[in-house]
Amino acid sequence: MTTQGALARAAAALASSAMARVSRLALQTREVGRSASAMAASSASRKVASFTRGYSGYLSNNPRRGRLDFGRLENYENALYGLMGVNTVVFASWQVVSPTFMLKHFACSTEAIRNFRPHTLLTSMFSQFDFGHFAVNMLGLYFWGRDIGQLLGGRRLLALYLAGGLAGTVVQVGLDYANQREYKWGQPRERYCLGASGAVNAIVTLNILLFPKSTVLLYFFIPVPAALLGGFFLARDFSGLFDGNSGTSHAGHLGGAAAGLLYWLMRFRRFY
Predict the structure, then answer these.
(1) Domains by residue range for the chain, with CATH
(2) Model-level pTM?
C-alpha cells in the first residue's frame, strides 16, 4: 500500500507539473500573440501616418509609382484614349476639310475673339495640322498622361488637360493682343494659336513636380533627370518669348506649365 501510495503521489505530481507547464506555455503564447498584434497595429499606424504625410511619403514605399488605385475615379484610360482620339479626329479633319473652315473654327486668335468665336478657346487645344506637331504632342500625352491618370484618375486628367490648354491659349492670345496694341508700323500679322502643347505641358509639369528625381528617356534612349529636362524646356520657352520670328507658341507652353504648377500648389504642395 505504501508503495502504491507513493506511485500515486508521484503520478499526481507529474500531472500537476505537466499542467503547470501547459499553463505557462499558454500564457507565453498569449503574450506572443498580444505582442504580434501590437506590432501589427504599430506597423499599420506607421503606414497610415506615412500616407497622411502626403503622396511623396506614400509613393516612396511603392516602387511602382503612379500605379495606385485610389478608388475615387473611373478608369483613366477612357479619358486618356478619348483625348488622343479627339486630337486624331481633328488632325484628320485638317487633311480633308477646307483649311479656311478649320482655321476659322479650330484655331484661336485675337481676330476670333473679336468676332465672337469663343469656342476656339476649346477647339484649338485639340487642333494640329502638321504631323510632327501632332505626333510629339500625342507621344507626350500618352507617356506622361499615363502616370498622372493612374495617380489622379480620368476626370482629373481631363480637367488638367482642359485647364492647361485653356491657360496656354489665353496667355498666348493675350500676349498677341498686347503686342498688337503697341505695334506702331502698320497692321501686325495675325497669329493663330492651336495645338495640344499647352495642355500637355500642364500634365508634364505636374508629373515632374511630383517625381523630380525620376529618369526620362530623351529621344527614347538618353536618360535625363526629369527636373533637369523640365528646366531645359522652361528656359527654352522663356528665351523663345523674345524671338519675334518664331512660329512656336512659347507663351502658350509657359501658360500650360503654369497651370500644372498651380494644380501642384493647390493639391500637393502641403505634402512636401
Answers:
(1) 73-271 (1.20.1540.10)
(2) 0.71
